[in-house]
Each structure stands twice: as C-alpha cells, then as structure tokens.
C-alpha cells in the first residue's frame, strides 16, 4: 500500500476528495492521512526490538485494512495477504515461515486464524479490524487511538512477500528484496491509461497480487478506490452506476455474476480479470453488455502481472494468451535451456522487476539469458507455452500434480488443450478439467461445467462429453453440471474443493447405474 508521505501529498491537493469508499464509509484524503498517522504510532509501539518485522492479513477489502497496510508501508513492514481458504495446515505453514509480529484479521476470518495454530501465536499482535475485541485480540480502534508521532522512524530494510499456492493446497512464500512499486506504478499507468480522475473498483480479494497492485497504483496516483470484494452481483451492478466507476479488478466468478445482471449504466472503461479460465462466453457477453472494457491478465505470485489482452485482442486471440506487460520479458526454453524461436512450444521463463528473488524456503529455477538487451535473470516457471508470430505469449500446458502412479506428459498436454477447447464452446460459462486416479473412478477425467443458462445443462453435457472423447479417448470422462466453480485469489481453480463437491455425486450416479444394469440383467 502507499506510504503516509504520499497520502499527505494527495490530501494537500484535495483534502475533501474521497480516497476510499467502503459501503457507507467515505474516507477523504485528509481522514485517510489522520488514520494512518495514528496507526503508524500504534504499530511503532509494537515493533520487535530485533529480527525482521513482518505482518500478515486475513481480511477482505475494508478501509481499516487499507489504513493498516499503509501504516506498515510507512514503517517499512511487509504486510502479506493470505487466503484463509488455504486451510489450517497451509495457513499455519505460511505463518510459521513469515513469523509475523502482527496479524490483521476480521470477525469472519478469526476461526481460520485460530485453527491454523502457528508456532509463535502467543507472541503475535492480533488486530481485529471490525468491531470490539477481547484478548488475545486488539481492536482496530485501540490500535489507532495513539497520538501521532512527532517524527516518523526510519523505515526498516525492504522486503516483500506473496503467497503462492497450487491447486492441491501446497504453499510457498515468494520473496522480493528490491523495491519496485514505483516502477510498477508507472508501467501500469502507461499500460492501462490510468488517471487521478478515475474511480477504481477493488472487487477481487486484496490477497490477489494483481488486485493489490492495482489498488496501490490507483491510490498512488490519487484516484478514488471503492472497496467491494464479497458483494453479490446485484450490489456490484448498482455500485458501478452509483459511484460512477471507471476502472476495476474482478475475479472470474464475480465477472460471470455481473454478466448475468442487466447492463450497468456508467463510465466504466477498464475491467481486469485473471484470464487463465475465462472462456468465449464471458468474452462475448462482456463486449455485448459492458462494451470494450474487459482485459484479461496472466501471471502468478512469483512473476507478477506477466501478460494482458485488451478487449479487441480478446475477440480474435485464443484463450490463455497475451502480450508481455511493460517491464516484463518472456522467453520460451527448449529441453536444453536455450531460447526457442517463435511458434515452438517449451517452458515459459520470465524476467523483469516484478519477478521474485526466490522462495523464503525452498529452491526456484533461474537462468541467465541475453535476448538482445543484455543479460537478464529469468525465472523458469512450471508453465509451457509459445510466443506466436504477433509476439503474444500463449500457454499450452502446465505442470500440475496428477494423483496417478505413472504420469503421461502427452496426455497432460492434451488435458490443457482440451480445457482451452472447452472454454471456447458457446454452450457453457465455465469449466475445469481434472484428472483423478484410484478410488471408484480409477484413472479418469472429472469435468464440471456451468451451463450457459438454466435448462441448457443437457446441451453442455453432450458437447463436453463429445469433446473429451475426441481429444483424450484414452481416459473416461465424467461430465457434471455445477452451480459454481471455486477460485483462489490468484485466479487458480480450487481443484481440491471442486473434487470434494463433485466426486460423491459422480460416485453415487455410478452406483445407481450399476444397480440399474444389475436389475435389468436379473
């Protein structure tokens, strides 16, 4: 988040202008500065005498969290967002790795924090952002009751963290020790034409790295930010019109909800969503209902925002593709680690100021390449893809855990292509392709999908079943209609949660079919 000096500068240029809008609360730049001053004083009293000073938050977008994060930024304290849906074990691992001196949370996230049971829980300052608090928690009001400091302390050495989780729930913490927020701000402003006069909707969770980067950028240039993650589709539609929102970041689930509502009037001109799982229906509906505003993003906690597609590009480009963002260089590597020419698929490697330095615990693969602009350090990712003739990066596969004893890389590549094909079908809103092994199903595909409309499930079932049989004939496919597909804050499908929801239904259907066959045979 932005520092107190920047907030004071914006307050001096317009003290009564809104900085943050959170429901009925409207915080002007002057009020924002006053709240951050007091939060800085309260946190400064709690800073550890020695060792790193790190903070963590488990909370949605609220004005209190924005104040707390700005106070941390002012003091040089890293403040890392964690998705509470990771589960107690993974959440406890993150807290143990970071060893935060402070955790900011909200009433609806307390249970997740308490179930995590981190090793150093007894020595951590726990700040409840909403409402009164009892021990071991401290209320946000109490934290900000301190008198502002006469002089700000010198900021601590810079470090920044993001939590990277795969679909199986395994987590690692990516670390950056060189500040790049200023350059990232300039790049985002140039990339998307952002301005001080914009009103920005922060609908995606703040633990999502792209959402947080855009919120920080909009506040950095003095724009107004409307905080609204967790709001349902009708409320967001009304908010777009009431606040005259011009820019925003949404999750795939939120975007689909918005597209199911009557078109909202207003000056919306830019909407960013993670693009790894956005299909043709969402792209076409967004253009029809909202106009040329939708941009899709590719990236990860390790690489930052890597590639984007604009509205016009989305109409003609395949899914899961985009041009590299400003300050980012993408290379495709062959088996020998050398760059491949355009059109040939290999492992994706990314360089730039957004790329992490490494993991806090564990190893990452880096390589040094010279692509004509001098040597650069590239992070070799687990994604596969190519750079097409237009210079766009297109993902063609990924490295994901497959719970079978023998992995077939050719089949895994076909699964990724299958999912891309399915996302282009006009008869569904969203889908996921998952490979399972063992149990009742054996080695098989599980393919949940959201139909394009109520009553169209049969059409979607037939189209998906035919596509699975054509693309991956070696594996049986269990296609099932669902109401929703869960996503993490980083835009990844929560495969474990999705499988937990659909496997019992699929198993029951198989048992019923077997019973019917047995009765007919008797």
Note the main attributes of this structure:
single chain; 522 residues; alpha/beta; globular
Structure, described:
The strands form 4 sheets. Strands 1, 2, 10, 11, 12, 13, 14, 15, 16, 17, 18, 20, 21 and 22 form a 14-stranded mixed β-sheet that branches. The radius of gyration is 24 Å and the shape is globular. The protein is built from 15 helices and 26 strands.
Largest sheet: 14 strands, mixed
Separate helix tally: 15
* Shape summary: globular
How many beta-strand runs? 26
Round the mean pLDDT to the nearest integer and report it.
88
Structural class of the helices, strands and pairings?
alpha/beta
Helix content: 25-40%
Q: Beta-strand percentage?
A: 25-35%
Outline the low-pLDDT stretches: 399-407
Write the layout of secondary structure elements.
Elements lengths: L3 H10 L4 E5 L2 E4 H16 L9 E5 L4 H13 L2 E4 L6 H11 L3 E4 L4 H7 L8 E4 L8 E3 H4 L16 E6 L5 E6 L4 H12 L6 E4 L6 H12 L3 E4 L5 H10 L4 E3 L2 H8 L10 E5 L5 H11 L3 E7 L3 E6 L1 H6 L4 E4 L3 E6 L12 E7 L5 E2 L6 E5 L4 E13 L5 E6 L10 H15 L4 E4 L2 E3 L7 E8 L5 H15 L5 E5 L13 H27 L1
Parallel strand pairs: 1-11, 3-4, 3-5, 5-6, 6-7, 10-11, 10-12, 12-13, 13-14, 25-26
Antiparallel strand pairs: 1-2, 8-9, 9-19, 14-15, 15-16, 16-22, 17-18, 18-21, 20-21, 21-22, 23-25, 24-25
Helix pairs in contact: 1-2, 2-3, 4-5, 7-8, 9-10, 13-14
